[in-house]
Design a protein that fits this description.
Distance between the termini: 31 Å
Strand content: 15-25%
Radius of gyration: 19 Å
Number of domains: 2
Largest sheet: 4 strands, antiparallel
Structural class: alpha+beta
Order of helices and strands: EEEEEEEEHHHEHHEEH
Helix content: 25-40%
Number of helices: 6
CATH topology of the largest domain: Jelly Rolls
Number of strands: 11
Shape: globular
CATH class of the largest domain: Mainly Beta
Length: 227
C-alpha cells in the first residue's frame, strides 16, 4: 500500500511570498494577493503537523489530503480539484498531509491575510465560504460512506461525485491511482478492481483511456445503489 512521502523538500515555509523573488525589488503586496506554485506528481505540498501559515486554491491538477494511521495504513480524506480551497485550518497546524496526484498548480495565500482577503475581495470571500461548506458536506457524506456502505455502493457514490464535481456529465475522469481510490473508500485495491469489473459486466459503467475515464452508462442505476 502506498504511503505518504516522508520527504519534506517541497514544504512551503512562512516566507513563501518571497520564494523565487529574492533577487527582485520587493513592493508591498495587497492582502488579496497570492503566490502561484507548481508541484510535480507525488510531491508534498504540506505535511501533517506542520505549522499552518498558508492555505491554497487549486488552479489545475488534483491534490489528495489524508494521513497515516497508527498501524501504517493510509486514509485519504478527499481529493481537491480546480477551484477548491484546502489547507485552511481552525488550529495552528495541519491535520492532514497534502500531495499532488499529478502536476498541480496552486495559489498560496497567507493565513494571516485571511481577513484582508475577505474584506478587500468579497467575491473571493464568498468563494471561500462556498468551498469550505462544500468540503464540510463531503466530509459528512464520506463518514457515512465509510461506515455504512458496501463496496459497490461506495464505488457508485464515488464515481457520481467525481463526475458531478468535475462537471463532466456522464464521464468520471480519474487522475488518481487505484490505490488512492482504495485508501479513500476504505477498500483494498483488489476490491476496487473487482468492483469496477463487476459494474462493467452489469452495464453500469464503461472504462476508457486505460481505465482513467469511467463512462457512466446507467446513472439511474448508480443512483439507486447510493440511495
Amino acid at each position: 500500500m502506498q504511503t505518504f512521502n516522508a520527504t519534506h523538500t517541497s514544504r512551503i515555509p512562512t516566507a513563501i511570498a518571497l520564494r523565487g523573488t529574492a533577487n527582485m525589488p520587493q513592493r508591498p503586496q495587497p492582502a488579496a494577493s497570492g503566490v502561484r506554485r507548481t508541484f510535480g506528481r507525488g510531491e508534498e505540498i504540506f505535511a501533517e503537523g506542520e505549522r499552518c501559515s498558508v492555505f491554497f486554491k487549486v488552479v489545475s491538477g488534483t491534490v489528495r489530503t489524508g494521513k497515516l494511521l497508527a498501524d501504517g495504513r493510509r486514509q485519504i480524506d478527499t481529493f481537491h480539484f480546480p477551484g477548491d480551497v484546502f489547507g485552511l485550518e481552525s488550529g495552528e497546524t495541519h491535520r492532514f498531509t497534502a500531495e499532488a496526484v499529478d502536476k498541480v498548480v496552486v495559489i498560496a495565500y497567507r493565513r494571516s491575510n485571511f481577513s484582508g482577503l475577505v474584506q478587500n475581495d468579497p467575491a473571493f470571500g464568498e468563494q471561500l465560504m462556498i468551498s469550505m461548506l462544500s468540503s464540510l458536506d463531503r466530509a459528512h457524506d464520506h463518514m457515512v460512506l465509510l461506515g455504512r456502505k458496501s463496496a459497490v455502493e461506495k464505488m457508485a457514490t464515488f464515481l457520481l461525485e467525481i463526475a458531478a464535481r468535475r462537471a463532466n456529465g456522464d464521464r468520471a475522469e480519474l487522475p488518481m491511482q487505484r490505490t488512492d481510490i482504495a485508501d479513500h473508500l476504505g477498500l483494498t485495491i483488489e476490491t476496487v478492481s473487482r468492483t469496477l469489473t463487476q459494474m462493467v459486466r452489469d452495464g453500469l459503467i464503461r472504462l476508457a483511456d486505460a481505465g482513467r475515464t469511467v463512462i457512466l452508462e446507467d446513472k439511474a442505476g448508480l443512483r439507486l445503489l447510493c440511495a
